[in-house]
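Key idea: predict the complex, not the pieces.
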Amino acid sequence: MSALAEILFGGLFQGSLYAMMAVGLALVWTTIGVFNFSHGVFMMLGAYIAWQLVELGLPAAVAFPIAVIVMAGVGWILQASVVRPLIGRPNIVLVVVITTLAAGSLIENGALTLWGPRSKQIPALIEGNTTIGGVGVSLHQIAIIVITPLILAALWMFLNRTRLGLALRAVAQNEDASHLVGLNVTALYGLAFAIAASLAGLAGIFMGGYRFMSPVMGADPLLKALIVVVFGGISSISGPIFAAYLIGFFEAACSYYFGLYWTPALLFGVLILTLMVRPEGIFASRSRGLA
Amino acid sequence: MTDTATLIAPRSTGAAPPVAPGRTPWKHEAAGFVLGFACLALLPLIFGDTYARHVLIMVFIYAVVASNWDLSLGYGGVFNFGHLALFGIGVYAYSLLTKLAELDPWIALFASGVIATLAAILVTIPILRLKGIYIILVTFGFAQLVMQVIISQSDITGGTQGLVRIPGLYLFDHNMVRDGKFAYFYIALALLVASTLFLRVFVRSRTGASVVALRDNEEYAISRGVSIVRQRMLTLAASAFFTGMAGAFYAAYQRNASVDVFGMSLATIILSMVLLGGTGTIYGAIIASFVLTIFAEWMADFGAWRPMITAVLIIGVMLAYPSGLAGMIKAAWGGVAGRLKRPA
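Result:
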């Protein structure tokens, strides 16, 4: 009983974080068709900005939303500086990988210079602990498990029910036609990056609330988010969300039964096997678009 | 008018059909090749101190890895992000073969190349059906998988601690440790010469032409009878051999091995060399490894500012010159040559 509860809880918790990261990656990929390798750095930066604001004396309830909004700006700036000028180049996928990697390295080392290598922690969303099904959990983690689906649902509503969201989906489906009907494609590119960066920043704030922060904290979640989007199919939003929770459960079960060391190897093994059977990811439809 | 005509149909004497428009005749290239590497071979006579030689040895190792990566990435058009894993496999293959199996270092050096080639063939299998971004993700996953396996088998591989006191190479009774890195310099240079020669012959061959055809127009190449499975496997295997050897040499030279070779930072540096040099040139990657390595050493005192300056530099070049340094040089050369050829 306790084992099952532990796996279930661990899966839900890890899955929430992966979903927040993976959705941003998938959003950028579907709209712009590039892969943002500085996504993990967004996560780190969001956490550090929140920490800095709390350190300046702001209450967490004010500091966290400000950090998320600042991250939207960072995403926009990054898109405008290292992605947008390259659009239209024949090898854009490859070049954007290197420019986003370089930008990530720039931000990471900037954070290291600015805030130093010493580990920091930001306040939890809710302090305190409780016991569910024989497993001790913190209220912070429960808050994450509850909040994440709400945010993802809000994103889904935005993409499917608002004019702006529909415009984003239109760009994802057919860029030329979007141009023709008068959508500001450039601005929508920026918007996709801004949303992705905000979500990653929020994931960073969540993570900084229960674990010590460091300038390289985004590397591992980025890796997991990559697995998630490959596993779930990168060309949709719902696919990565399901896959995120699935990977979360898989990881929790693996580390419970096989130990922490074998978990990453098993994950990558499953990933490669999945791609051999279903190259588009297990939840993906064959078309490119947001749903 | 005349300009477009020469672009479409390059002037030929009629005796032999043009091999490829704009391609350097092989005699010119061979002359440049010999001249360039002869200059490199003279460098230790100019630079006496071991530090300068060490930097050059590292340049040669990086140049081998980067130029081989350019074969699969630039020529093959395969978005292979697991190339550094082949280098890492070379490092660990050499370390384990010499340390545990107590194999002769020279045989182990060669065997490491073979093992890396086999690993490349293995990783080709899952990516045969894939395209673009999915190849990036699977090959990236492969690199991580190799690293995780090495970490989890810490009894043999030393895990995150790595391995130390790996046997080095030897030359009869010559003391390689106390010769001011003289012998290692020439071994590294020989490796680079062999690798570059192999790569250039490969890309100029019929096979190389078919690989480029697959990259540029997959459907058309397949319809003309080029096998995507065979060519892709061949390209990756060909790019793996010298990469594995470079990894083995790196282990023999440094005399230790760690999982850092699988890390993102080294991959980013080498990938920058490939892209900064200009993909699909081979020589571009080699030039860029000189530029980036020497630049990084030159800025060694800058601390945390060094990676930041390097990052800004890479972004700047990528934005301004998408075809990299090779494109930059070509454009400059074209300007000069055009002016010289213009009738007086």
